[in-house]
Amino acid sequence: MIYYIINNNNKNKVQLNERKILLIISHPDDECMFFGPTLLFLQNRKNQIHVLCLSIGNESGLGEIRKNELKSSCKILGIDTENVNIIDHSLLQDGPKINWSHSLISSIISDYVTKHKIEIIITFDEKGVSSHPNHIATFNGARHFIHSSTTSSNIILYKLITVSILRKYISIFDLPLTFILKNQTNLNDFIFISSFNNFIQARKAMTSHQSQLVWFRHLYILFSRYMIMNELQLVN
Ligand SMILES: [Zn+2]
């Protein structure tokens, strides 16, 4: 795996080895569409990775199929399928017009991190990469948990940085700009860059979501920078 980590040698830096880490996503396929480089990096560092998906992605009635696709995708990404958990809550149904309650998400996260002794949470940022309201609500729920829950005191929250639509679809060519802008990030931010083999692995995970493989998904795989690189920022 090729990767770059800002200030890797600093002793005060958050360590990403042998930790219990929870990725929180909104829909099956978010894990490989957006977080592939992160998951593949973490999986190589002996971390115990959990995935909590807040909906079954049932907007088109394919939820039951998509649950299985998520597990297949996570398996390809090296995640133990016992650590992949999918919520099917009546108030957290898939859809851009459905408002997800931040406090409900926060309480679900609280139960999960307590049960599994999670140390680090990773999720979307306030723009949700694709601006999907469910992604944004997922971030707001995680932030609500960090700021309000008594169980969150030692838990670290990272968000996946959203870039402009122009940068989003120039694949590896966004790399120079990412490095130029890295000086504006702080000590505990991370940039993960996949090797070609990792890109192939993430692509394979994407193809396990057969129900979602419409023509433009293939273009996404080819052109999205999120198939190749991720920037994670610490949420204070
Ligand atoms: Zn999504």
TrEMBL record:
It is an enzyme of class 3 (hydrolase). One of its GO terms (cellular component) is membrane. Pfam families: PIG-L. GO terms for biological process: GPI anchor biosynthetic process. One of its GO terms (molecular function) is N-acetylglucosaminylphosphatidylinositol deacetylase activity. It comes from the Eukaryota. SUPFAM superfamilies: LmbE-like (SSF102588). InterPro entries: GlcNAc_PI_deacetylase-related, LmbE-like_dom_sf. Its EC number is 3.5.1.89. Belongs to the PIGL family. This is N-acetylglucosaminylphosphatidylinositol deacetylase. It comes from Glomus cerebriforme. The lineage of its organism: Eukaryota, Fungi, Fungi incertae sedis, Mucoromycota, Glomeromycotina.
